[in-house]
Amino acid sequence: MSASRPESAFREDAFFDATKHPRGYHGKFTPSGSRKVTPDVHTEIKARRASPVSIVSVNRQPEYTGEAKAVKTTFGSKKESGDIGEAVVAAYIQQSDPSAHLIAPVGTWKAVDGISKNEAFDVKTGLISVGQMGNRHWRFTFDTKDNELEALAGKSADFKAKYNEQKMRAAVTRKIEAAKDVATVLNRQINPAVWGVILNPDNQRADLYHIPGWHTRTAWGNVDAMRPYYVGTVNYPLPAGKKRSLAEAGAITPRSKPITWDDVPAWAIDQMRTADLLNECTRRIVYEYAKTLDSMYWDTFTLLVKEFGDNEHGH
Description:
It is built from nine helices and nine strands. By secondary structure, the protein is of the alpha+beta class. It has a seven-stranded mixed beta sheet, with helices on one face. β3 and β4 (about 120-125) form a beta hairpin. α2 (about 40-45) crosses α5 and α8 (about 285-290) runs antiparallel to α9. The longest helix has 30 residues, at about 155-185. The protein is globular.
């Protein structure tokens, strides 16, 4: 992929029919006898695998009651907290639906996080320590490669907004196509849904929310607005003792590759560019700013420090 990809890939409205690439989806998926599903995808959809964590209790006493809570547990990447959120949701659903399971990537096919008997669902995880109310949200993200970021540098805010909008809509379209495969393989109606998780890693408790449909962004800061979707709060002791992550507990394979810019959502990078933190920064400034964005801040901090080295401008 060349550095000019955003120019060549950007399509004006005449070539990009937004009505065919929705921002979210609230419909249903039905089986199609004429739909072709590859054998490896068929196998993955039919797979059954137990969650790597267990739920020891469920109650109606939420951890998050409207105020952020400081936590001592840190994560090396957003994937670590996301893995826990996904595993917790899978374990909760499996209590009543043993067929439910998380989806493993099959080549480029993995547009949904998991499958239950009647849903193709995404899992979005946020940390209870997120400070700013506006950043307490579950957000749909998509990859932006290093060379895309280079090519987008210097473009207008309007150009980048349209480019990201088209990428996001195209990603939702892939998700819809994947759910059609699920409905066809399972031969039943499948509904889209989002499971939202608010994680307190210190006491290993998680608030669970179930939201019908797929949404590009769902704010969870207002407890009154989210109350209709609240399912319960679970305790999820990690295996092999009190660990911060599933990889550390030996429940899943650790990341085999170092953190890259692909792990940082484009919106977070854009905000940092706007704040000039990608041009002039100190370790402390980057840490404090990134921390206000969301649970991604450890990845962001690590990457920026790596890019700018030990130059702390006298701090």
